[in-house]
Design goal:
Strand content: under 5%
Distance between the termini: 51 Å
Function: Peptidoglycan polymerase that is essential for cell division.
Shape: globular
Largest sheet: 3 strands, antiparallel
Pfam family, one: FTSW_RODA_SPOVE
EC number: 2.4.99.28
Helix content: 55-70%
Enzyme class: transferase
Strand order of the largest sheet: 1-2-3
Structural class: mainly alpha
Pathway: Cell wall biogenesis; peptidoglycan biosynthesis
Number of helices: 17
Length: 445
């Protein structure tokens, strides 16, 4: 076996490692969620006659299913996922149509957001978020030159997002629609779209979003109650005023785990949308800082992994990391902001912490994808290091892609220069041209 064959065998045997910081932050948030759901849902379960630990058991079961799905995502090569990029977008539209099918869709309080799976209900938008992020990542890989240079390539994902948003508003689900629009805009900016060109759709979209709030009475009531919840404390401001009282009672170190008063049938949705208020009441300012710090670590680490992937020309993996970071970062920011009275009330859960089977399972899948990105990035870095070590002995000119130089002919003519081919794992999918414009992360030129 020659040197090149031995090196290829060594490269194939190299594995990667899952990012420990990402894993630790996700596990810490999941464990905190189990504790807090158990604490916040006791009174709710007893009041509904289903038992004090009903919601805790459901949350643990859904978390177990989510961990199993995350394990599948962690073991799936990203290039396998990328092959189905066209089917992913179709899947988003099919999922959002399912709640309208007779016998399958479920209406709760006038909203059609769920489908009946027999053992439980599933909120389809949670799956749409992760599927859309993967499709968006594949689109930015295939058209990253055009997205940076032409109007049609930039407007296409915005048009797709607009159709999905209209379908979400029909349910209605204004919070998820806004989140999806934010993810689209953020991924386009991180994918290298020209910022002055991007400003035009933003200028058009903002008045439309304001109109959707102004001309819908219940949304307008939420905005006005958010500005002054005490004006109608027993009406439109009931949720926020009780949330603020819970946060105020927590002070520096909280009233103690399990000792919350507001969760005793005063604070609505204490185990889902307003679980952050229960955390603030029972664990105080210290607990609030811990939760926010864990989310900052998780999102920051995901953005770091995305940047490293782009630097190594693993664009698909990088854009997935960017998309998941934007999703978890924005959703957690909105959830915390709603509880603190900084934002109008929205039905968005706190990722990995709030009770809610659909959200818990799909967030676990997103974390699994992030861990797969970290695994493949670490594997690529180790392979590059091995190539660099073997370059002098084997005659490999470049650390990642170069082939061995051609053997000189028996004539006096000099040997032709070595042909350099791009390694498929490092370059991702090829576009229609031979050169690539690398992302500028929202350049102005």
């Amino acid at each position: 076996m020659n040197d090149l064959s031995r090196q290829a065998t060594r490269l194939e045997a190299i594995g990667g490692r899952f990012d420990p910081w990402l894993t630790g932050a996700a596990l810490a948030l999941a464990c905190l969620g189990v504790v807090m759901v158990g604490s916040a849902s006791v009174a709710i379960g007893e009041n509904l006659g289903v038992g004090p630990f009903h919601y805790l058991v459901r949350h643990v079961l859904f978390l177990g299913v989510g961990i199993a799905l995350a394990a599948v995502a962690m073991r799936t090569e990203l290039k396998t996922v990328e092959k189905y990029n066209q089917l992913l977008l179709l899947g988003c539209f099919i999922l959002l149509l399912m709640p309208w099918l007779p016998g399958l869709g479920v209406s709760v309080n006038g909203a059609r957001r769920w489908i009946n799976l027999g053992v439980s209900r599933f909120q389809v938008v949670e799956a749409v978020k992760i599927i859309y992020i993967v499709w968006m990542a594949s689109y930015l890989v295939r058209f990253r030159d055009e997205v940076n240079a032409t109007w049609p390539a930039m407007l296409k994902p915005l048009g797709v997002a607009a159709v999905l948003i209209v379908m979400l508003l029909a349910q209605p689900d204004f919070g998820s629609a806004t989140l999806l629009l934010g993810i689209t805009a953020g991924m386009l900016v991180l994918g290298g779209v020209n910022l002055p060109r991007m400003s035009a759709p933003v200028v058009i979209a903002l008045p439309a979003m304001v109109a959707l709030v102004v001309f819908e009475p219940y949304r307008m009531r939420r905005v006005t109650s958010f500005l002054d919840p005490w004006a109608d404390q027993l009406g439109s401001g009931y949720q926020l005023s009780n949330a603020l009282m819970a946060i105020g009672r927590g002070e520096w170190f909280g009233v103690g785990l399990g000792a919350s008063v507001q969760k005793l049938n005063y604070l609505p949705e204490a185990h889902t949308d307003f679980i952050f208020s229960v955390i603030a009441e029972e664990l105080g300012f210290a607990g609030v800082c811990l939760v926010i710090g864990l989310y900052a670590l998780l999102v920051g680490r995901a953005l770091h992994l995305g940047l490293k992937c782009v630097e190594m020309r693993r664009h698909f993996a990088g854009y997935i990391a960017f998309g998941v970071a934007l999703w978890i970062g924005m959703q957690s920011f909105v959830s915390v902001g709603v509880n603190l009275g900084m934002l109008p009330t929205k039905g968005l859960t706190l990722p990995l912490v709030s009770s809610g089977g659909s959200s818990v399972m799909m967030t676990c899948v997103a974390i699994g994808l992030l861990l797969r990105v970290s695994y493949e990035l670490d594997r690529a870095e180790r392979q590059r290091a091995l190539r660099q070590e073997g370059a002098p002995a084997t005659g490999v000119a470049d650390a990642t892609e170069a082939e061995p130089a051609a053997v000189p002919a028996r004539t006096s003519r000099p040997a032709p220069p070595p042909v350099v081919h791009a390694h498929p794992a490092a370059t991702g999918l090829r576009g229609r041209g031979t050169s690539r414009v690398e992302p500028t992360f929202g350049g102005f030129s």
